[in-house]
Amino acid sequence: MNDLLPFLDLQGFGPLLLHGTWVTLKLSLLSLALSVAIGLLGAAAKLSPLTLLRVPATLYTTLIRGIPDLVLMLLIFYSLQGWLSSLTDAMGWDYIDVDPFGAGIVTLGFIYGAYFTETFRGAILSVPRGQLEAATAYGLGRLQRFAHVVFPQMMRFALPSLGNNWLVLLKATALVSIIGLADVVKVAQDAGKTTFNMLFFLILAALLYLLITSASNVVLRWLEARYNLGVRGHSHD
C-alpha cells in the first residue's frame, strides 16, 4: 500500500492542474469560436461566384489541411513574434513578447477554420435549392433566408462533422504547451519531472481530457437531437 502512495498524492500540484484544465477549456472554446467564424466566411467565399474570393479560400483550405498542425503552430507562432518585433522596431516601441494564450487561439482558430470551412460548405450545399427559392418567393431577404432557412438545416447536416472537428481541436490544444502555455499538459509534464512520477501525471492529464470530451459528447448529442427535431416524424409521412 505504501508503494502506491506516491501515485495517489498530487504533491501540491492539484490547484495547478485544475488551473491548467481551465486554461485548456478556455483555449478550446475561444479557438472553436474563431474556427466557426472563419469557417462560415471561408464557406461563403468558396461558394461565391467571384473568383477573387473563391480562389484564395480554396488555397487556404488546401494548404492548411495538407500541413501538420505542429508545423503550422510553430510557423504561425514565430511568424507572429517576428511581425510584432518588426512593428515595435519600426515604431520605436519596447519589445513585446507574443502571449502564448492569444497565439494559441489565433493558431488553432486559423488551422481548424479550414476544416470548418469544408464542413459548412458541404452542409450548405446539402440544403435543398427549392427551399431557398421558396423563401425568396415569400420575399425574405438574404439575411432572413440564411437565419430562418439555411442555418437550421445547415446545422443539422454539419453537426456530425462539427462535433468531430471540435474533439480533434480539443485534443490539439495539447500542442500549445510547446510554445510555453501552462495548459493541463504543460502542468502535468512539469509535475511529472518534479515528482519523478511522469506516467501518473500524464495519465491524469489524459483522464481530464477524457472528462471534457465525454461532457462534449453529451452536449453534441443534445444539439443533434434539437436540430433533428421533427425530421424522423416527417420522413414517415
Would you give an account of this structure?
- This protein is mainly α.
- It has a single domain, classed as Orthogonal Bundle (MetI-like fold).
- 80% of the residues lie in helices and 0% in strands.
- It contains 10 helices and no strands.
- The protein is globular, with a radius of gyration of 22 Å.
- The termini are far apart.
Write the layout of secondary structure elements.
Elements: H1 5-8, H2 14-46, H3 51-66, H4 69-91, H5 100-126, H6 129-137, H7 142-172, H8 184-195, H9 198-227, H10 231-235
Helix pairs in contact: 2-3, 2-5, 2-8, 3-5, 4-5, 5-7, 6-7, 7-9, 8-9
Largest sheet: none
CATH class: Mainly Alpha
* CATH hierarchy: architecture: Orthogonal Bundle
CA gyration radius, whole angstroms: 22 Å
Annotation, overall tally of beta strands: 0
- Beta-strand content estimate: under 5%
Distance between the termini: 64 Å
Number of domain modules: 1
- For this structure, the CATH topology is MetI-like fold
Helical residue percent?
over 70%
Shape: globular
Question: Ranges with pLDDT <50 over ≥5 residues?
Answer: 1-8, 233-237
What is the structural class? mainly alpha
> Topology as H/E string?
HHHHHHHHHH
Number of helices, where a helix is a run of at least 4 consecutive DSSP H or I residues:
10
Average pLDDT rating: 83
The CATH homologous superfamily corresponds to MetI-like
